[in-house]
Amino acid sequence: MELLKELSIKEGIVSHLFEKVITPKKPNYIAKMALVGIGLEEHFDWQSILKNYSRAKSGLAKVLPKERFQLIASEEPIQTKEAIFTWLKDMQAQGIDGIIIYQASFIAGDLAATLARWLNQNKIPILSWSHDEETGGRLSNNRLCGQNFLLNILNSCGVKYSWLFESPEDNEFSSNILKFAKSVYVKASINQKSVGMVGGFRVPGFYDCELNELSLLNRFGIKIDRIDFDTIWQHGKKFKDSTIQEIRKELLNHPLCKFNNVTDQQIDKSIRLSLAMADYARLNDYLGIGLKNWPELFDHYGIAGDGAGALVQDLGIPVADESDMGALLTMILMNQISFEEAIPTLVDLSLINKSNNRIGFWHCGGAPTKLINSATGYEVRNHSILENFDVDSSMGMLLEFLHKQGSVTIAKYQYPDASRVMAWEGDILPSEMAFRGSYAEVEPRKNSAGDILSTVLNNGLDHHWIIGRGYLQKDLNELNHWLGIDNIEIEISKDHLYGHSN
């Protein structure tokens, strides 16, 4: 029984039933990563250069996941400006997404200048890669100085780059290569793709949930489809009542389900909405969905949509409550950079315990069931915030639970144009359910809870945050470099939970 519980959480409580009836997921994007060695036979040990380049190719091939990357490598190191230009034009024709330049030896300056000019005309991420060489006797390759020379020329020409000085056998080689490769993957995989804003726009008065649409397209390549509720509801009519009932039965009779006070009618409506959004997203190959879960769903459809969004998220499709575009963007970036392992979800920063160095994150009940703490289970509930006004008129379906423990990253790309981000790492620790809803208490990994809160309030940052699984900050920082996004530094709090605007 315990194994069954864990397996169902890992995949999502009812995801297997959804996958039987919705459009299949499209294959993953395959990023084309080019590798080119550069060197100079005239003054350096060519056999050593060839040997090390062969070693570099095989080392890189082992690191890049084949289900996400295609490695395209030059046969041998290139030596002249003419040859590098010819190779670059060939790579352009093949539609490469990123370049790794292996510094096989010192190089001719005009080769580097030709490379710089091409990179200024074709802005894709590049990594300069070199490593140490044998000592004693003659300097056979002069790789480090060659890398220095190359990057001086690139920098002088205003070319953005990353660099690495490690051999394939070094402990950090794999993680550093992947850090760069993931940025290449994210930029390429989201470019000219769309998100669906179900309900059309953000919820009323939530100004920080809107992003400048042209900024989103210009910086990230993401387009917005605005979808009215009637379109989604009509789309949901394709699903049989028997399918809806089977999903409801599975959800309510699961051994981890501890309580339900939502009517069958509201649960069925929620499931139908969830199926409709998931299928519509798959058909249109959306990166994610923004869900305007109030007031229309309350007033005209008689449900609270949070639980519907939760079940869509279980399928690997990010869903941002209250149509928060910055939150949705953050979820998409976390989802892509983790190869869909981050399971990002939207939360409010709702509790601070400075003495225990913890921050409590809460939201109504729209987190994916993959995040359920199996020790405490979940409840199917009416909306707790609506109950603050009137218990009898409240509605569902919401999924309330404690989040499972583990390492996390908290981040949000900020209103109004996502040109800034605040991100930090921590761990979800055991806690009580401070408030009904979906809840997690996080202990920051490096910063203090007081410093984080001071930074948020002093800078007047957005009121929604995204929790993603795993320590992702280094990967996000690399991505931010390539997207031209500023990191908001966490400040040191000078007083006990007191501050002022910056």
UniProtKB/TrEMBL annotation:
Q: Does the keyword Electron transport apply?
A: no
Query: InterPro entries attached here?
Result: Fucose_isomerase_N/cen_sf
Would I find Isomerase among this entry's keywords?
yes
Keywords of the record, alphabetical order, are: Carbohydrate metabolism, Isomerase
Give one GO term, molecular function aspect: intramolecular oxidoreductase activity, interconverting aldoses and ketoses
**Cellular component, GO annotation:** cytoplasm
Give the UniProt record's GO annotations in the biological process aspect: monosaccharide metabolic process
UniProt name for this protein: Fucose isomerase
UniProt source species:
Flavivirga eckloniae
Q: What is the lineage of its organism?
A: Bacteria, Pseudomonadati, Bacteroidota, Flavobacteriia, Flavobacteriales
